[in-house]
Structure to design on (304 residues):
């Protein structure tokens, strides 16, 4: 654990040193530079803001934010940012401490801060950070974030209004499409079993029961009790498919399959789902809308 986060603590210390000596840099290209922590955040901002804004993303495609380690390249991006936008609710792990310190000098915005408390899932005393799997909720967080950006840069944000409104309409259509497709799965088959508990908002929004072998964070691990409990569920409900997450090694789902088959049952891998990260930009799943469509189509095909 200490090794995972050591780079972040070093970055934090270095940033504070730079600020203390007045070495903050400034952009000279006339653009508003926004640094987004995740590709999902970067994509929805890129889809909503025009060329007055330049979007940079810290975490590359396929990178698990729960395990993210800050790099030397992050220092330059963060120091040159006009605005830093992150998910919040500890999705970014120890990076949240860096962002809290930067907020004394920078405009730092948490997407989750734009949602009411009652809209957030609470599990074992901690808020679930995987907001984007409820498309309507994620759109609400995005609209709140765009309003905050507009408070800082009203003229530039006004020029983005048409683009932002069009993207908001796309997200509303995506929400309705997702809801209608999931309802085609017979109710008794609506069980979504994955490696970690990332799909809770998805389950609540679209009425499908979600079970994660690990906890909300991929830093969690699973044990024999977890395997037996979920194995029992699969056997009792005759669940036909479980799902692997793209950014997580398949060993947990393979262990679950072995547990079920060793007891005379049968279950298969229904496909790979995107959870915490986008795919490469030149792929269908290189956008937020793309990963939602991929996931929904994969789930429906496997469970219907």
């Amino acid at each position: 654990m200490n090794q995972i986060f050591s780079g972040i603590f070093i970055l934090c210390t270095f940033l504070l040193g730079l600020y203390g000596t007045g070495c903050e840099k400034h952009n000279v290209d006339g653009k508003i530079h926004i640094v987004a922590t995740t590709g999902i955040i970067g994509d929805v901002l890129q889809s909503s803001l025009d060329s007055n804004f330049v979007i940079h993303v810290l975490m590359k495609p396929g990178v698990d934010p729960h395990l993210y380690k800050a790099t030397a390249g992050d220092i330059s991006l963060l120091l040159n940012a006009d605005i830093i936008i992150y998910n919040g609710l500890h999705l970014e792990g120890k990076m949240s401490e860096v962002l809290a310190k930067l907020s004394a000098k920078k405009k730092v915005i948490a997407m989750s801060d734009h949602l009411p408390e009652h809209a957030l899932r609470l599990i074992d005393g901690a808020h679930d950070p995987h907001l984007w799997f409820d498309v309507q909720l994620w759109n609400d967080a995005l609209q709140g974030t765009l309003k905050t950006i507009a408070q800082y840069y009203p003229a530039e944000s006004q020029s983005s209004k048409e683009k932002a409104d069009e993207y908001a309409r796309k997200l509303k259509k995506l929400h309705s499409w997702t809801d209608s497709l999931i309802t085609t799965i017979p109710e008794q088959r609506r069980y979504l079993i994955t490696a970690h508990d990332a799909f809770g908002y998805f389950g609540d929004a679209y009425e499908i029961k979600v079970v994660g072998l690990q906890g909300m964070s991929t830093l969690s691990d699973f044990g024999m009790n977890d395997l037996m409990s979920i194995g029992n569920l699969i056997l009792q409900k005759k669940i036909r498919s479980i799902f692997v997450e793209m950014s997580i090694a398949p060993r947990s789902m393979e262990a679950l399959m072995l547990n079920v088959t060793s007891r005379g049952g049968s279950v298969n891998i229904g496909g790979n789902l995107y959870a915490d990260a986008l795919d490469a930009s030149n792929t269908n799943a290189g956008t937020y809308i793309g990963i939602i469509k991929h996931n929904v189509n994969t789930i429906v095909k496997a469970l219907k």
